[in-house]
Amino acid sequence: MSDILIESVLQEQRQFPPPPAFSAQARIASLEQYQQLCQEFQADPQGFWAGLAQRELHWFRPWEQVMDWQPPQVRWFVGGQTNLAYNCLDRHLTTSRRTKPAIIWQGEPGDVRTITYEQLHHDVCQMANALKALGVQRGDRVGIYLPLIPEAAMAMLACARIGAAHTVVFGGFSAEALKERLRAAQVKVVVTADGGWRKGAVVPLKPQVDQALADGQVPSVQRVLVVQRVGGCAMTPERDGWWHELQPQMSPDCPAEALDSEELLFILYTSGTTGKPKGIVHTTAGYNLYTHITTQWVFDLQEDDVYWCTADVGWITGHSYVVYGPLSNGATTVMYEGAPHGGNPGCFWDVIQTHKVSIFYTAPTAIRALIKMGVEHPQARDLSSLRLLGTVGEPINPSAWMWYHRVIGGERCPIVDTWWQTETGGMMIAPLPGATPTKPGAATLPLPGIQAQVVDRQGEPVPVNQGGYLVVTHPWPGMMRTVYQDEERYRRTYWEPIPPRDGQHFYFAGDGARRDEDGYFWVMGRVDDVINVAGHRLGTMEIESALVSHPAVAEAAVVGRPDELKGETVVAFVTLERHYQPGDALKQALLAHVVQEIGAIARPSEMTFTDALPKTRSGKIMRRLLRALAAGESPTGDISTLEDRGVLESLRPQPQ
Ligand code: WTA
Predict the structure, then answer these.
(1) What's 601's DSSP letter?
(2) 278 lines ligand 1 (CB under 6 A)
(3) Is 12 helix (H, G, I), strand (E, B) or coil?
(4) What is the ipTM of this complex?
(5) pTM score of the predicted model
(6) What are the residue boundaries of the AMP-binding enzyme C-terminal domain, all occurrences included (predicted)?
(7) Residue 550 is part of which domain span?
(8) Quick check: is 624 in a domain?
(9) Is residue 579 in some structural domain?
(10) Atom 5 (ligand 1): residue with closest C-alpha?
């Protein structure tokens, strides 16, 4: 990490107070109420979390100690026993939620399943018994490699119910990436499907599992449970079994185990843009409480909401905000198997219209893709059921925020821009929609109980509007516990970059940020995505936002290229909106636009028009690959997470 701080050049002045009609109904209805919660935490941090844990979760045994902090190791609710699946299912069955839809699922071809809490509980118990019958015991690891179908949530909940840890591998990952993750977690049983639907086509999954397991490459795996989704696949006798054949034989009676608060809940491998994937470890009680309460706060969850988060369960967003957070709150969570593409550009808006979605949570990369598909699609649907919008995954460009606000939110829905990470378990910095005025591009303020700061390398807070490193200084219940079987990497990655001082430890998130005069956080992207032009550290995000604010630009990625004179120069890769043709005149116009928005310092020295950018399967731009291309090298290292390898071939920077 360099000593030079990141300079912030993009200034966004627009502000949107919470709509009064929204605040009037909201759980947290004013900034004063938010501040009061923050003060409660300040006055008694442990009492704050203990009070919430007491009120919001079911406990089989109370804890003896709220928090045991031996930096950087933390344990929460020590000595207590609970069960995440119990909190997501059983406790709702004695209320009117018993017959409420827990999951409304829509497959890409249009098939719909509505599953009540009662039914979900039934199926999860059967799945838990099936896992047991296949040899899974408390403490074992189960691999889940499924499309976005209800069985994915069932498998996760079944694991949580019996105290087995799951490791979900996104269905878009290759056999190689799957093998690596199954091996690393020493998985005993894999739950998969014959295949799933994605962008109008069947994507086979089981053959990937067969390939990953071939020749005993993952010796720990004993059995494979296969869900039928697309019509069948080859089965290996002795090892593989069909879920639909096993299910009727399984008892729907499977009491939830009383699990220790710190019992391993899941391992989720982050598709790191550099190096080997890290197995992020989350445990039972703290994660449950944190995802539960943040769902309630940030989505202002009400009993009759129909809530839709578009993430796949293969990512943390799917874990925390498709499955666990909503179900723990007794909400109706929508799952949609598909993704917008040329063949069905309006599919997201159809889902909202059909199921009367009231809360919609997606990623900036999806928003930009939807913008590109054209405003006529959302305009042709009834989106009036929406009352709240959210984003997650990367900084949202202010112009995309404004489109979301106007076109999708009809200027009446607050937007919650939520900053968090796989490592944090749940949302950390985000508006409370009834309380916090929003600004396009800002994640706004830390949630109650979260002590976030922007500091320099020595841990000194930086002045207002100056860029620095985003850190968290007090443990929170949802934080990761370690990197699976690699404590040393946990320390080195998260706790050592900014050394402790005066007994204060800094969780280093890896992101750059600045705070403005209202204390709002503007996340500027990963600090390794910073370009140093003639001694100015520029956040790639801000230059990209400047480009995207031009009407011709759909998406932009900016990287640095080593330069003898300036240290680095700015190289831009740009995809255009429909109806715009690449050409020199447009290039000059875009360069001038960046100069006008940010200044000559940020003017790209090279610009390449392209049809698509190289992205990870979770939609993050793989700048490492673009950096190599910009430097005239061939990309090296792990590209297993790249969504479409063809994209790389088509990209070669053209000098001005
Ligand atoms: C980025 C996703 C700006 C950030 C939940 C973080 C964001 C990384 C935002 C974590 C946001 C996520 N504004 N940046 N609202 N949300 N990020 O682990 O760089 O897939 O460190 O977790 O995404 O990505 P992850």
Answers:
(1) G
(2) no
(3) coil
(4) 1.00
(5) 0.89
(6) 542-620
(7) 534-651
(8) yes
(9) yes
(10) 421
